[in-house]
């Protein structure tokens, strides 16, 4: 009788292990699909004076299979031009950093230039190393797969969206599905901007889909290589 019980439990353990493994692979495959992004450069209108625009009526477009309420994060591999791609995370309180952010000065994203416009930019430098998924959300810092060359203006314009998500998670301990998609024109090394989608899974109180333009007032940027000049 005892041997029979052990045999049944053994079969049950194997079955549950198989189901768990299959579920994990299934979710992983959906994450890989999600890393492909949903928008192309042709979908994004040219900059018209607004620092960001709403996409799809501000409704994020996540597959149902990703809404599993288990924390994860995934970053695209750099492409053949060294460009960072889509980053996605189901941000939970368990992913948020517990230590101070360290330097990321050793990372030089595609199109990077160290250049100053002291009289045009309050913080002097045109470019920042911009986290696709903010450090305050997942603790990813000097990760080249999570950094792009962005203007100081763009970096500041992303902060309110990032703060909204971070403050919500800290308050509720809920999960927010979050995807950042840098969108490049052809082989340009600098992105035209970043699409940010977010959806809180327990209550949908966080829900947005925006595109933040990679621009700097008073500066003309050559997105093909990151060089720049003053507007005349």
Brief account:
The chain is built from three helices and ten strands.
How far is the N terminus from the C terminus?
Answer: 89 Å
Q: So, CATH architecture? A: 3-Layer(aba) Sandwich
Count the helices. How many?
3
Structural class call reads alpha+beta
Q: Tell how many strands the DSSP assignment holds.
A: 10
Main sheet: which strands, in order across?
1-8-7-6-3-2
Output the radius of gyration.
21 Å
How does the overall form come out from the CA principal axes? globular
What's the quaternary structure here? single chain
What do you see in this structure?
It is a single chain. The protein is built from 3 helices and 10 strands. The chain is α+β, with helices and mostly antiparallel strands. The protein has one domain (35-230): 3-Layer(aba) Sandwich (Extracellular Endonuclease, Chain A), CATH 3.40.570.10. The strands form 3 sheets. It has a 6-stranded antiparallel β-sheet with strand order 1-8-7-6-3-2, sandwiched between helices. A two-stranded antiparallel ribbon has the order 4-5. It has a two-stranded antiparallel sheet with strand order 9-10. The protein is globular, with a radius of gyration of 21 Å. The N and C termini lie far apart (89 Å).
Descriptive key words:
two-stranded antiparallel sheet; 232 residues; alpha+beta; Extracellular Endonuclease, Chain A
SSE diagram, text form:
Blueprint: H1 2-34, E1 52-54, E2 72-75, E3 87-91, E4 127-131, H2 135-138, E5 147-151, H3 152-172, E6 176-183, E7 193-200, E8 207-213, E9 219-221, E10 228-230
Antiparallel strand pairs: 1-8, 2-3, 3-6, 4-5, 6-7, 7-8, 9-10
């Amino acid at each position: 009788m005892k041997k029979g019980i052990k045999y049944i439990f053994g079969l049950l353990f194997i079955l549950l292990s198989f189901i768990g493994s299959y579920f994990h692979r299934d979710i992983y495959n959906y994450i890989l699909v999600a890393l492909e992004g949903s928008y192309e450069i042709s979908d994004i209108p040219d900059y018209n004076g607004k620092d960001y625009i709403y996409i799809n009526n501000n409704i994020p477009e996540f597959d149902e299979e990703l809404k599993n309420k288990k924390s994860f994060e995934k970053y695209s591999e750099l492409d053949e031009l060294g460009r960072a791609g889509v980053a996605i995370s189901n941000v939970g309180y368990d992913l948020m950093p517990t230590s101070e952010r360290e330097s990321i000065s050793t990372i030089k994203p595609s199109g990077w230039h160290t250049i100053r416009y002291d009289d045009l930019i309050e913080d002097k430098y045109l470019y920042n190393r911009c986290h696709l998924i903010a450090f305050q959300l997942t603790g990813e810092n000097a990760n080249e797969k999570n950094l792009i060359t962005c203007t100081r203006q763009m970096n500041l314009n992303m902060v309110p969206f990032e703060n909204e998500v971070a403050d919500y998670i800290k308050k509720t301990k809920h999960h927010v599905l979050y995807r950042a998609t840098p969108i490049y024109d052809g082989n340009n090394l600098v992105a035209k901007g970043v699409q940010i989608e977010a959806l809180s899974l327990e209550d949908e109180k966080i829900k947005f889909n925006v595109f933040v333009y990679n621009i700097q007032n008073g500066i003309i940027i050559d997105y093909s290589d990151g060089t720049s000049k003053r507007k005349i």
